[in-house]
Amino acid sequence: MSSADRFRTPSGGRIDRARRHGFTFDGRPYEGVAGDTLASALLANGVHLTGRSFKYHRPRGILAAGSEEPNALVTVSRDAARVTPNLRATQVELYDGLSAESQNRWPSLQRDFGRINDRLSAFFPAGFYYKTFMWPKTAWKALYEPLIRRAAGLGRAPTQADPDRYAQRYAHCDVLVVGAGPAGIAAALAAADGGARVILCDETAEFGGSLLSESNALIDGQPASAWVHTAIASLAKSGRVTLLARTTAFGYFPHNLVGLNQRLSDHLPRPPESQPRERLWQVRARSVVLATGAIERPLVFPGNDRPGILLASAAHTYLNRYGVRVGRRAVVVTAGDEAYQAALDLNAAGVAIAAVADLRSEAVGALPDAVRRAGIEVLPGSTVLGTDGELRVNAITLGRVQGGTVHAGQRVACDSVLMSGGFTPSVHLFSQSRGKLKWHDELKAFVPGSSAERECSAGACRGVCDLADVLADGAAAGAAAAPQPNHAQRRFDVDAPKRRSGAYLGILPQAEAPSSDKSFVDWQHDVTTRDLGLATREGFRSIEHVKRYTTTGMATDQGKTSNLNAMAIVAKHLDVAVPQVGLTTFRMPYTPVTFGSMAGISRGDLFDPVRTTPTHSWAAAKGAVFENVGLWKRARYFPRGGEDMHAAVARECRAVRDACGIFDASTLGKIEVVGPDAVEFMNRMYVNNWSTLGVGRSRYGILLREDGFVFDDGVVARTGADRFHVTTTTGGAPRVLALMEDYRQTEWPDLEVWLTSTTEQWAVIALQGPNARRVLETLVEEIDISAAAWPHMSVGRGRICGVPMLLFRVSFTGELGFEINVPADFGLAVWETVYAAGQAHGITEYGTETMHVLRAEKGYIIVGQDTDGTVTPDDAGLAWAIGKNKADFVGKRSLERPSMKAATRRQLVGLRTKDPRIVLEEGAQVAAMPGQKPPMELIGHVTSSYASSVLGHSIALAVIAGGRARLGQTLYVPMPGGDLAVEVAAPVFYDPAGARINA
Amino acid sequence: MLLIACPYCGERPEIEFSYGGQAHLARPPQPSQLDDQAWAEFLYMRSNTRGVYAERWRHSRGCGQFFNALRDTTTDHFLAVYKRDEAQPALSSEGRPPSEAHEPPAPRERSP
Amino acid sequence: MSKQSFSGLSLIWRSLSKHRGWQTQWRKPEPKARYDAVIVGGGGHGLGAAYYLAKEHGLTNIAVLEKGWIGGGNTGRNTTIIRSNYLFNESAALYDHSVKLWENLSQALNYNVMFSPRGVMMLAHTVHDIQVFKRHVHANRCNGVDNEWLDPVQAKEFCPPLNIEDNIRYPVLGAALQRRGGTARHDAVAWGYARAADALGVDIIENCEVTGIRRNAGGAVEALETSRGVIHSPKVGVSAAGHTSVIMALAGVHVPLESYPLQALVSEPVKPIFPCVVMSNTIHAYISQSDKGELVIGAGTDAYTSYTQRGALHVNTHTLDAICELFPNFRRLRMLRNWGGIVDVTPDRSPIIAKTPVPGLYVNCGWGTGGFKATPGSAHVFAWTIARDEPHPINAPFTIERFRDGYLIDEAAAAAVAH
Questions:
Q1: For tag attachment on chain A, is the N or C end more exposed, with fewer CB atoms within 10 Å?
Q2: What is the 8-class DSSP label of residue A112?
Q3: CA torsion A205→A210→A215→A218, rounded to 10°?
Q4: Rounded mean pLDDT, C32-40
């Protein structure tokens, strides 16, 4: 053992002294060993000062040994991108080359200018910021808030994107055991005995929990840690048990879903590239056993926060698990027997125990006697009046409590104070599961009462303290949880001294004139007893109010070492029993969980599925620019030779109207409606009268919501006596099918009709333009598509290039048009064949932007753009589509409401700008009066707006109040640069008579 | 994520389902006969029960079927699930359906 | 009762006596048998309404009844976003009325509610988003509400951690920014209104659950049965968010509400890194950084109605995967705490602030996921409605009857927005 880690014991512990790891802390090099945490390694080197407190910047040391640590928060940097702030040094596993920094101090940990806050602390009581910073008004945002924000926060967020990967997994099991201490291991053994598939998880690297610090117990004849090894080995061999170390169960969700976060690589010096850093497990367990143990409570007394003041069980753990002496001369202050074992072990390891100050009036029993026999002074009826020391505690002032009065005691020199106020059962997950807690008077803590899920708590987390009882408790829980309750119970032979537990809550008894030193309740948020007093004085009575006002329990440790003391102090101020104060709500996560772990693989290409059409690769090769339409990628335009969108769209539009365009419409939703009652079903769903639609014909259909507003639209074809091919908008497809199924299944189950989504089964190739028929007639088989034989809106089955085809004569452009539907797998081949055939006829590929312009020239609406969920068919000028004399359809009744027929409703019209070169902005508002100042009277807005290269002027569609009665009127579009004059026109700009579409 | 017992498929996780709102709201057979107030009640009023709520779910990423459930909205625990054509189960005074251990059917084997 | 003044000087002064001189911020009186008006619901909207009733309408013999601890419902659980960039005139007027009150609230209440107008930026990820947000920008400009369009580079200048790479699944195509929007400290709003109302004589009665509403022979409100006795009052204003349906049913009044869980979460605190509020509707997440340093993150509601104040894990994983895509530097930060509330949602996702069919009974509800921002404005017009027995012009359109008549104010339909 080198002199560097001079507080390391020569032997013992779960560490490997032969494997030395170098690390740096705040730039200084140190050495630790394999098995250390950063905290144990620092302590081994005699380093206690690890941080500065949040508000007062007081020097702080390590308080605990586990995830409940409130002080020692560090930033660990693997490289420039892999920087992780706010880690607890007690949970950072040491590796060779680890680099860690303390936080929230400047310029250094030893000399922090922020310490001035401690001197000025009188001005910073709890909630001080609510009372001030209000003058002058603008100073809050400009001055005070930035200062507060700079002072707040702990570590710094990383400045680069996180390169690490995170995985996710779902798992099912019969029994999930949370916590692999004695109770958890016993439960897992018993459950496995009962044939259960078990998952056993523990937040630390090694299973065993408190047994890893246990020096004085034999289980089945073995020392505790050896028994752990045997037990885990047998669990591993059983084939039914999944063992998850470094895995925190962080959340308990309804129906026994438990969230686990597994840390895979933070402990490795050089993690493999391919390995995820963490894995999120979502475990659905038939039964859950919570064996989450208990957390020791610190004591509240003046000056209880100096470096070197730790929890007694932490010091015990550092010794027995990590081979570290926390100091040279310690004073133990305790409310129960457990700390006596720590005193004995530390003493045996060479730490001078100056005294054991027992808060109980008597210190009797096997352990206190053993301590006395070891020559250590035991002082019953003690209290603590204060401590001394700047960057390290150097003395503690004890007092004596006699007959209810506090007498001065002695000032004892020491470099460590080990405190124990009893153990608080960890009921976080139990509470998250919505189980009811009950107060345990002897433990002075809450323990699980009635469960809300199929779950059982075992061991220290439900207040069972004695080791033999803990093991039996765990075994019983595991056996009961197994699917086949096992009557041959596991038994454990335990040889351990009996311990008398003790518990203390609240401020230790103080003298008449108490010390002016601060007594801390919540270390991380610097909440003192004075703050709690102030809160209750100011009328904050509910524990939730006290918490929010003082911020006690709201730090990153979520009050693990502070909540109960805070409650007790508040109870005293309010003069009620502790349980009456109430408990703040336990919420997930138990300890913080990395965002990346929650996000898992949902990033980059896997963030959302990408849906592509059959011609996607062809379009990409042609240099198409794509847009996202829901999950789909659609070609928006096909720029040639450096064209911008405007130029490309202008060219594509002219090409369609002059010759022929080809467009991929495969994303449109398609639903097959089949059955003897298909017509009746369609009549009830859509506004149209489908009875009059013959086989081989199609019609533009409109679907409303029951409240009367347009929900979706599309061409509907009658492909057989008992079947329809219904098309929907791209985005609306799943919603339309869902709506249809809702009615079909739950309103009209007597109708014989079935619905099938065929959106992905059909590729849809739109061919639009005066040459469309010429391109198609050489390729189509079995259908006579001549003008005479096949008028507009015809539908039929045939073949194209030998491939089965459903052909529509339909147009969204206003030109002669067809939509070729072929099975999707043939989509690309048919497209390429049509494209080749079209070369002689000037065929041009076009995208969604051109599609938008062309349809707008004809005044065809796009649901979701020209409508917004507040538009009726009549508003959109589509009342003609509603079937006459239909008794009912979805939405019909709502259309009868007076508001739905008001003349002032916003109606679809066209707008022509006075200056035809000006293209209105989509979303621009429309006013009847020019020159208004805000708030203006507005009568509508522009829904679609384009420059029309075909027409040579801008066009726009808009919804305007009473629009149809305003044809010819001049209205105004107020823009930042002034009003734009527009004239209301019919919403058809191109070929209103429809000659071209009927060619 | 809730675990929901589809009456056709057995227990499946919540993400396989869509929520269908309050159950047993039959669309009036003759909407034209209702006044605006009554029609608005059908369209918009829901009991929004704090307690045992009869509601619909659809196994949209499974069998696609709508079914009904009784769920306690103060605990999110299901008391019963029942098919569309089954009557709403009566609950005992403890709020439990009379049929003991309403075990959903074993999940069907999924084909590869 | 006088109210001690809060100021830097008074803080220094009282520090001399170790802060022992501070009075309770609001009294804990026993409920009287009779008041001139009672507000049911001690959240921000309810406490604020009581304050304005006393301050502006001279009604001081009034009480606020709160089932638990004041501000313990959605007021204490929201993500504190304040903005008024809504589409329809009616909404813009209501929310901007609120923003104007926010701008002076700390001074009016002599309580630092920490209103921080640091800007709310709404991201557009698709062509549809651009159309929708530009429509908002135009409408807001014409309504006198600030809202401006930014291109992606400008958006990143305003919010440096924002990822504007075009290789993510839904790249940022632009953003609409309301500079006057921002955040405030939610608890302080409840406490500030409570203290100010209390100073004007309002009784704030906590741990008092309303279990019945008594009406006289004419059908008008007469008294409330509560867990702390019967309280008579001719005017009752119900401001109970997710529990509104339960309370209104006591008077036989049906309001079209459904109560859903809404979750939010915070990260561990870090030094200042996020200067504004960013919202993305397409990828469902919104984020800001509190003055304590925590990133405050939220999304949409869970899918089913519930009063449990908790929701599903997968809602959080979806929210965080969106946050990590937009702000890849945050992927290593950690979720510290997650919680939930109960939001009452109307069919058009706009609130109801109105008289009810029961004379003397008024209701303020249906704020869904967007109630916090409206706290002062809502409280103000609700108080007006109660005091004068008729709505203020600003809340006049937000009636219960609009659903029957079809005059919906459907912000969500218009924009597919989660507030």
A1: C
A2: B
A3: -110
A4: 98
**What pLDDT score does C417 carry?**
31
Residue with tokens 């928060």: A73
Number of independent structural domains in chain A: 4
pLDDT value at B111 more than 50: no
* Enclosing domain of residue A11: 3-117
Q: For tokens 């004591």, what's the residue?
A: A299
Q: Pairing state of beta strands A762-768 and A817-823? A: antiparallel
Print the domain residue range for B56.
3-83
Q: Are strands A241-244 and A843-845 parallel, antiparallel or unpaired?
A: unpaired
For chain C, percent of residues with pLDDT exceeding 70 = 98
Neighbours of chain C (3+ CB pairs under 8 A): A, B
For residues A46 and A85, membership in a common domain is answered with yes
Does A60 reside within a domain?
yes
Q: Is residue B35 part of a domain?
A: yes
pLDDT number for residue B100: 36
Q: Do A150 and C272 touch (CB under 8 A)?
A: yes
Residue A959, domain member (yes or no): no
| Side chain identity, residue A9 | T
In whole angstroms, give the CA distance from residue A604 to residue C194. Answer: 48
Which residues from chain A sit within 8 angstroms of residue C313, using beta carbons? 251, 253, 257, 259, 282
Contact of C111 with A130, CB cutoff 8 Å:
yes
Assess whether A27 and A106 both reside in one domain: yes
Question: Domain with B45 in it: what CATH number?
Answer: 3.30.2270.10
Q: Which pLDDT score is estimated for B94?
A: 60
- Tell me the average pLDDT across A650-668: 98
Could you read off the pLDDT of A101-120 as tens digits, one per residue? Answer: 999 999 999 999 999 999 99
Q: Compute the Cα dihedral for A496, A333, A527, A107 and give only its sign.
A: negative
Listed residues A495, A520, A538: the one ending a domain: A495
CATH number at residue A42: 3.10.20.440
Residue to substitute from C67, C210, C304, C399, interface B, most B β-carbons within 10 A? C304
Return the exposure string of A470-504: e unless at least 16 CB atoms fall within 10 Å of the residue's CB, then b.
Answer: bbbbbbbbbbbbbeeebeeebebebeeeebbebbb
CA-based nearest residue to A554, from C336, C75, C272, C309 = C336
CA distance A302 to chain C (A): 16
Mean pLDDT of C310-328: 96
pLDDT confidence bin for C187, thresholds 50/70/90: very high
* Structure confidence at residue A500 (pLDDT): 81
Examine residue A435 and state whether it is found in any structural domain, yes or no: yes
A271 shares a domain with A372: no
Count of domains in chain B? 1
| C-beta separation of A90 from A71 below 8 A | no
3-state helix, strand, coil in chain C (%, to 5): 30, 25, 45
Residue B92 forms part of a structural domain? no
Nearest Cα residue to A655 out of A848, A861, A841, A786 = A841
In a domain, B101, yes or no: no
Q: What spatial distance separates the first Cα and last Cα of chain C, rounded to whole Å?
A: 40
Nearest to A745 among B27, B66, B77 (CB): B66
Is residue B109 assigned to a domain?
A: no
pLDDT, averaged across chain B: 86
Q: Write the CATH number for A368.
A: 3.50.50.60
* Cβ pair A286, A265 in contact under 8 A: no
> Is residue A807 over pLDDT 70?
yes
How confident is residue B110, by pLDDT bands cut at 50, 70 and 90? Answer: very low
Q: Pairing between strand C37-40 and A940-948?
A: unpaired
Clarify whether residues A339 and A407 are in a common domain. Answer: yes
What is the DSSP track for C308-323?
SS---HHHHHHHHHHH
Q: Beta strands of A26-68 (E only): which ranges?
A: 28-34, 51-52, 59-60
Q: Which residues of B touch A284 (CB under 8 A)?
A: 3, 13
